[in-house]
Amino acid sequence: MKHLWIDPSAGVAGDMLLGALLDAGAELSLVQSAIDTVVAQSISLRVESVTRAGQRATKAHVELLAPDPPHRTWSAVRGMLDGLREPIRDRALAVFAKLAAAEGRVHGIDPGQVHFHEVGALDSIADVVGVCAALDDLGVTSVSAGPVALGSGRVRAAHGTMPVPVPAVAELALGWRVSAGGEGELTTPTGMALLAALADRCEDLPPMVIAHVGIGAGTREVVGRANVTRVMVGELVERRPTDGAVGSAALILQANVDDLDPRLWPDVLHQLLVSGADDAWLTPILMKKGRPAHTLNVLCDPGRADLLRNRIFDLTSTIGVRHLEVGKFALPRLTTDLDVEGGPVTIKVALRGGVVSQVSAEFDTVAARAAELGRSQQEVMVLSLMAARAAGWVAGEPVPGDHDG
Questions:
Q1: 168 vs 87, 163, 366, CA distance in Å?
Q2: Is residue 186 exposed (0-12), middle (13-18) or buried (19+ Cβ within 10 Å)?
Q3: For 23-73, what is each residue's pLDDT tens digit?
Q4: CB count, 10 Å around CB of 158?
Q5: Residue 86 backbone phi and psi in degrees, to 5
Q6: What is the C-alpha separation between 135 and 20, in angstroms, rounded?
Q7: C-alpha separations of 230 from 24, 31, 185, 200, 331 in Å
Q8: Residues near 202 by Cβ (< 8 Å), separated by ≥ 6?
Q9: Nearest by Cα to 341 from 294, 287, 379
Q10: SS3 state of residue 277
């Protein structure tokens, strides 16, 4: 399981990322073969060792061997990718789909009607396919990237001069941490589309054991700033504190709501938990004009953020959701069913440093058992904890020896 972290703090373009991956060890002949599958006898890929602001880097040169049409449609590009094998094809399709969606948004047309200009040119197709083939050759299974420098000023494009970042880059950068970072166009539409489609998240360098470092050069030599994109390939390090807690990245989705019937909140929290949230809770707040309100907080795995964000929109009256990147440490836990007065109650156990840390009864099963017995929930809760102690589930004691989990 190899992770790729991309450092676009000086900007990123398709050829810069391709050069970085080749510098990190991707096989040039395999990348060339994938490009030939899409545009046979049209492109020759060549690498050169260069320096940028005194730093060594690899420049990927995409040399055209055949005339290039003025533009290609998204459907034409999609058909050209059909001959690629998975996962190269899937990654390349995802990149161009991002580009088509961004261009469609910018021009106010359906993505399927988008005509690519610079992006649909042979060299851009080679950059996208080449990057996806290099990832496959390096065995990369997950990707993240740092904050992106977009640049400043103006640039000439197919539709005339435009401000930097150009509209397509700005659209593709939604949700990413960005900065200007310098003058000129530091990030191209192809470069930003590669990040947006291939990287799971925007983050600073994660804990990892680095196996390879690659540095890809841009075309320009910029005084005082290395015009490069860096990549690091290695294995992510799972944070494991001495108490046995397992660390992981997490998100907190938040929304301030002042106009929802408060009787609906219990079901909102329940539905979010059912939908995969790790936790969900409310914080009372006072908003503008002295309005009482609540902040909805939803803790979740980054991979479930899109689903849960949509659920928040479905279940509440909010028109905006923000997210905070956090680290989460969770103690190992297990559940076991114990007999309480002739019926089951689920006991939850947290472990810390190899011993029992917390013991509690799952309230829903306590409530169900209390209803069956015709007794109070408090009484059944006490009986459940007594059953847990009798079975050896005691805080500060080792896990019962006869437990098979």
A1: 26, 11, 55
A2: buried
A3: 999 999 999 999 999 999 899 999 999 999 999 999 999 998 888 766 777
A4: 12
A5: -70, 150
A6: 11
A7: 9, 19, 18, 17, 36
A8: 144, 145, 146, 147, 148, 175, 176, 177
A9: 379
A10: coil
Three-point CA angle 8, 18, 30, nearest 5°: 150
Query: Scanning the structure block, which residue is given the tokens 């996806």?
Result: 132
d(CA 349, CA 315): 32
How far is it, in rounded angstroms, from Cα 62 to Cα 45?
A: 5
User: Percent helix, strand and coil across the chain, each rounded to 5?
Assistant: 35, 35, 30
pLDDT score recorded for residue 405: 44
CA 368 to mean position of chain CA atoms: 40
Q: Which fold has domain 246-330?
A: Alpha-Beta Plaits (3.30.70)
What is the dihedral angle through the alpha carbons of 64, 70, 75, 79, rounded to the nearest 10 degrees? -30
Q: Is the pLDDT of residue 198 over 90?
A: yes
| CA angle centred on 375, ends 374 and 380, rounded to 5° | 130
DSSP state of 181: -
Q: What's the rounded Cα separation, in Å, for the pair 390 and 338? A: 10
Domain boundaries, the chain: 2-236, 246-330, 333-390
- Write out the two tokens for 127: 């950059």
Nearest-CA neighbor of 230 among 72, 44, 24? 24
The mean of the pLDDT values for the chain is: 89
Half-sphere exposure of residue 261: CA atoms within 13 angstroms, side-chain side: 4
User: What is the predicted pLDDT for the residue at 159?
Assistant: 67
Threshold 0.70, pTM exceeds: no
Q: Which residues contact 3 (CB under 8 A, 6 or more apart)?
A: 140, 141, 142, 143, 144, 206, 208, 233, 234, 235, 236
Per residue in 202-252, pLDDT (tens digit) is: 999 998 899 999 999 999 988 888 999 999 999 987 654 445 566 677 899
